[in-house]
Design brief:
It contains twelve helices and 25 strands. With about 650 residues, it is α+β, with helices and mostly antiparallel strands. A ten-stranded mixed β-sheet has the order 1-2-4-3-5-6-9-10-13-14, sandwiched between helices. Strands 15, 16, 17, 19, 22, 24 and 25 form a seven-stranded antiparallel β-sheet that branches. Strands 18-23-20-21 form a four-stranded antiparallel β-sheet. The protein is globular and about 75 Å long.
């Protein structure tokens, strides 16, 4: 396995933890050493029902004149710093909840860092447990809460959980078979199912997560022994040109070498008998939505979220990592638990940005406004937790069902349902003259060549990063000017068009090959007089900016079933239904609505051979062939539109 220099490793790990573990950025509001001066710190190893001990850090207010609720985050990213004399600069979901006084708890999940046990990436939920040896993240959370409410001084018997990204998954998990003391949960950017977010999108493997694989799949030395330093390394691809690296690498099987551990410099740090990364093995041996992936998802277990747990699901409209998870978490809790308090908050953020405090809120080149994250923390998140943890939890919270930010008008809106009850379905058709029309014209076909040697990049600004964020709002003019990207757009809007809810692309396609991916992008084309903001890259202007509002891929083999893939019949007209995740965006008067259709999106997703093979992770060089694809003009895009 290749290794990166120690200082790069430290930087990478720090970035991952800061962005995923919800460690807020220090601001002038927080005085130096605030936590150390106002909190005591205790580290304990809490025994679970099967005897495994989980390392837990407890920050308690020094003011013991009153009782406090417990706010807990469970994480695979470490509860550091370790040592009772070592303090975080900031604790809790936000600065307000820290300064008001709460008992803040962090726990290393089973098998990670200083906790005992075996780690399982997205550990499967076990319903109807009958023995003490049947454990999962729900039982571990239950046992932890039981210990905390009975052993931590000055707690008021009420517990809340929160987390962003992977910790958000654990927050969701806590609501199933929940402890009676758990009163509030806020899963944020929560992973829902690895086949649809994070490592896959509709079955297409995200190469953008390639370097993160070892983070989750490298076994600890001696497997179950606690460790307080990083035991994994991230692959060093040896270049800053990520596009060229993956293009030159060829088939996915050529990446196996990055996850083989039994080399001269590493045999002593691997458990006996472990020669490679178990998560990489899961990826390559389970290319379809089989029992493995189905068992690991939490979405399908949300039919019985306990009614005493209030939930507030938080996400970012431009989250490149976890957009599917929070949307589906909210929708499934809402669908199956109609008597529960369940709300959603979605703002103009990338992954976890609502937990950072900064005056200007932007994603990549695109600026959305000032103090948006601060507003969320003070007026929404703090209000939610205080109502259920410090009040009696009854009565009105003062918060709406859906607090959503319109990324086109750049304003917050509230709705008593999501999608809004006033939303209706409107269909636009793809026409041969590159128009996006409200009526279908004569059926014809548009063809383009999908060249495996020149795949369409996901951005003109590709960098070697943990996972890209900026591309979610990138200018798509670079793609619109390629011959292998089809472009359809409306005339200039004469009135506002507000997209509010999910989007369904109903494509009728064909290919000369037996396999293909299909990517659809929804774009807001700005007018020529749009004023440029300071976040814009120097070579770009907001005039005619092609803002990507939403995008998604469908691996064509899964068009009828994610469990049972099938090839295309060459040159046969075939239906592809591609669901794009929800948006709340107004295409304003004077703008244009555009749709782009393409077949490669590199190296965000892996290259489809365009020749059907049973397992793309095991495809050979000769399987990759350039093909000609066809889109028929009876294809359409169905939007959820908010009526004025």
């Amino acid at each position: 396995m290749k290794h990166i220099p120690p200082y790069f490793l430290i930087l990478a790990l720090t970035t991952i933890c800061v962005l995923s573990c919800n460690e807020n950025v220090q601001t002038d509001e927080v005085q130096e050493n605030y936590v150390a001066r106002n909190y005591t710190k205790q580290e304990v190893d809490i025994e679970m029902r099967d005897g495994v001990k989980l390392h837990t850090t407890i920050y308690s207010p020094k003011d013991t004149s009153r009782e406090y609720p417990i706010l807990m985050q469970r994480t695979p990213y470490s509860s550091r710093p370790y040592g009772e004399d070592q303090f975080r600069e900031q604790i809790g979901p936000n600065v307000h909840l820290m300064q008001e006084g709460n008992i803040i708890v962090y726990q290393d999940v089973r098998g990670r860092w200083m906790s005992e046990g075996r780690y399982d990436n997205m550990r499967a939920f076990i319903p109807n447990k009958t023995t003490k040896d049947e454990v999962d993240e729900s039982s571990d959370t239950y046992d932890t809460i039981e210990w905390l409410v009975n052993n931590v001084d000055n707690n008021n018997g009420k517990v809340g959980v929160w987390g962003i990204s992977y910790p958000g998954f654990y927050a969701t998990y806590a609501t199933v078979d929940a402890h009676p003391a758990l009163k509030a949960a806020s899963p944020q950017a929560c992973i829902g199912d690895f086949f649809f977010d994070d490592f896959h999108h509709n079955g297409a493997y995200l190469l953008s997560y390639f370097r993160a694989t070892s983070l989750f799949g490298t076994p600890r030395p001696n497997n179950e022994s606690p460790i307080d330093t990083a035991w994994y390394t991230l692959p060093d691809i040896g270049t800053e040109d990520q596009y060229q690296f993956f293009l030159d690498s060829g088939p996915l099987q050529n990446l196996n070498a990055f996850f083989e551990y039994e080399t001269a410099d590493t045999p002593k740090i691997r458990p006996e008998g472990v020669t490679d990364d178990y998560f990489w093995n899961e990826l390559k041996e389970h290319p379809n939505y089989d029992e493995l992936w189905q068992s690991k998802g939490i979405i399908q277990h949300l039919k019985d979220v306990k009614s005493h747990v209030a939930t507030m699901i938080v996400g970012g409209w431009f989250d490149a990592e976890d957009l599917y998870g929070p949307l589906e978490t909210y929708k499934n809790i809402e669908k199956y638990n109609q008597g529960n308090y369940n709300t959603m908050v979605f703002g103009p953020w990338d992954h976890g940005a609502w937990a950072r405090r900064k005056g200007r809120n932007a994603v990549g080149n695109y600026y959305f406004g000032d103090s948006i994250s601060e507003f969320f923390q003070e007026k929404i998140e703090t209000k939610f937790f205080n109502h259920f943890l410090k009040g009696d939890g009854n009565g009105e919270t003062g918060l709406p069902e859906a607090y959503v930010f319109d990324s086109g008008t750049k304003k917050w809106a509230t709705h008593d349902a999501w999608p809004p009850k006033a939303s209706v379905k409107k269909t636009f058709f793809l026409s041969a003259d590159q128009k996006l029309t409200k009526t279908q014209k004569d059926i014809s076909k548009i063809q383009f060549v999908s060249d495996i040697k020149k795949p369409v990049p996901y951005s003109e600004d590709i960098k070697t990063v943990f996972t890209p964020r900026k591309y979610m709002t990138d200018d798509q003019r670079f793609a619109a000017r390629r011959s292998d990207v089809l472009v359809f757009e409306t005339d200039v809007m004469e009135e506002d068009l507000t997209l509010a809810g999910d989007i369904m692309a109903k494509l009728n396609v064909a290919t000369t090959g037996t396999a293909a991916d299909w990517i659809v992008k929804v774009i807001d084309v700005h007018p020529d007089d749009a004023e440029t903001n300071e976040e814009m890259q120097d070579h770009l202007k907001l005039a005619n900016y092609h803002l990507m509002v939403r995008s998604e891929v469908m691996r064509g083999r899964f068009r009828n079933s994610f469990s049972d893939p099938e090839p295309f019949e060459p040159n046969k007209k075939t239906v592809i239904n591609l669901k794009l995740q929800d948006v709340f965006h107004t295409i304003k008067k004077g703008h244009k609505l555009q749709v782009q259709v393409q077949s490669t999106w590199f190296p965000l997703i892996d290259m489809n051979p365009q020749t059907y093979v049973d397992n793309i992770f095991k495809a050979e060089e000769e399987d990759f062939k350039t093909q000609t694809h066809t889109v028929f003009t009876d294809s359409s895009i169905e939007f959820s539109v908010l009526e004025p």
